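Support reply, case 0932

Customer input (verbatim):
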Amino acid sequence: MASLNVGNLGEYLREQRRTAQLSLRQLAEAAGVSNPYLSQIERGLRKPSAEVLQQVAKALRISAETLYVRAGILDEKEREELETRAVVLADPSINERQKQVLLQIYDSFRKENAAEAAAASAAANGDDKADDPAADTL
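Our regenerated output:
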């Protein structure tokens, strides 16, 4: 997990707020935080909690995970996985059983690809375990 990058987060929030054509006061009200507190976040003086970031993201109608990445709370790979899961779970055209099966398949593919990447890395580094047939089992 990266350390908090509050300055980058503040600049990004200000840009998103301006794109949404909201004043600082309007966004603060919509997010349920104080105007001075939001101003301090935008200027990089405060480190907001994940809960505050979620409220701000909702008010801006952007992904909370994107803000978590900008704040250093979440790394990019974790964000992508969470967003993929959220899209599957939010799809109204498939039922709950289908959603769970789809997520299980998704998890199995991720594990398989991680194992293959680890084996390739080990082979590239000359690790003897890369040739071990027992390492291929999932």
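We compared this against your earlier run and they match. Two observations from our side: The helical segments are 6-19, 24-31, 35-42, 50-60, 64-71, 76-90, 96-124. The chain has a mean pLDDT of 85. Please reopen the case if you see a mismatch on your end.
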